[in-house]
Design brief:
The protein has 472 residues and is α/β, with parallel strands linked by helices. It has 2 domains: 305 residues, NAD(P)-binding Rossmann-like Domain (Rossmann fold); 150 residues, Alpha-D-Glucose-1,6-Bisphosphate, Chain A, domain 4. The protein contains 13 helices and 19 strands. The strands form 5 sheets. A 7-stranded parallel sheet has the order 3-2-1-4-5-6-11, with helices on both faces. Strands 14-19-18-17-16-15 form a 6-stranded antiparallel sheet, with helices on one face. The chain has a two-stranded parallel sheet with strand order 7-10. A hairpin with a 5-residue loop joins strand 17 and strand 18. Helix 6 packs across helix 10. The longest helix has 28 residues. The mean pLDDT is 87.
Amino acid sequence: MKILLTGVTGYIGKRLLPVLVAHGHKVVCVVRDRNRLSLPPSIVPLVDVVEADFFQKETLQAIPLDIDAAYYLIHSMSTSEKFMEMEQQCAVNFREAIERTSAKQVIYLSGIVNDAALSYHLSSRKMVEDALQSDKYSLTTLRAGIIVGSGSASFEIMRDLVEKLPIMIAPKWLRTLCQPIGVADVIRFLDASLLNQQTFNRNFDIGGPDILSYKDMLLGYARVRRIKRSIFIVPVMTPKLSSYWLYFITSTSFKLASALVDSMKVEVVCRDNEINQILGITPMSYSQAIERALAVIDDNQIVSSWKDAFSSSNLNFRISDFLSVPSHGCFKDKKSYRVASHEKCVANIWSIGGSKGWYFANWLWLVRGFIDKLFGGVGLRRGRTHSTEIAPGDAIDFWRVLYANKEESRLLLYAEMKLPGEAWLEFKVKGGRLFQVATFRPKGLLGRLYWIMLYPAHIFIFRIMARRIATT
């Protein structure tokens, strides 16, 4: 069958794609920017890539008409005032585009919405569900609560909190009940619902067997890790204070922390488990989901991470718009060293950031990350998804990968930290030499003063960093 898949660069879509391909489907991946989509060579012949933006109707003509079904996995954690309006318009444009095709079913992954007072984002998801309804195809909505898996925002935040804080003074929303589900089970539900007529024109809540408070989930993680943690709940934390609490302690961005706090005040418990019987799926327990996530992390096999989504930053742009590093009106710091080994130098480049660090003065990078956090930036806590693999669109600390090609021995990064300008950092190995170029395009006088003030430090740090990458 021919399946249209949206959100393929996102946390769920990136995991669903290989499952659909393994089951023999021809998958059409719809992306806003094909430069962000990195496909394993083994599935490239089985996948078509279409570049379209559901906010721009004129681009949707590229969607093929002969599809059998489609997945709607588009969702943002934006806090824009026009967020709900934008989400609804995106869904309407998607619906109208799919109505022109031969698709029999659309499958939408939403959030559990059985509480009388929904959060801003859960209300938006319900509005999207309503907008996707059509008499031209059957809509199947799977509503999930907290998704537990390596790289998921909820799991990574829990991991940050439990690993870093032996004692937590936490807000009262930690008493809210939810029904978490493992990401592997989410993928199973999405896959098994495909063209299953028993799921047509219906919505289902999907969750694991455990109903827990967020406090129970944190302590449950600690039990799996065999570490002792104590949590004390206080009633004085406002939503804004709670958001700052998450923002400064965990790797989340402030806008994502705000959205999560808003949603975590709402109870999300499944109405029933009818979908389990229909599809013959028995979801794993919460502790099993945690154990599985930790095993994947230990094996360095994380497939996707929320950190690689643009919602983890303060920016939303097309990678292709920044692939050409500017020169006019820019400051540049260029370094070049003869490499001891071409292969070793490339491996060093491909390991940069995260736990490996930046090869010199890591404490200064940490200070810069802390300052960035103070001013509302992403800081260094995102790290990286994989310790040795890099793909366009990945996050590396406070950088975004624009281009990564091992055959060309070239890596290009774009800064997502708070800056009075724009910054690129490029590495390239050619002719037995490493070429490292830092480019800064200032905005106004403040940008120029910023570069002048930090230039001595840049000379010192970038020189030793480049030398160590080239020679170690």
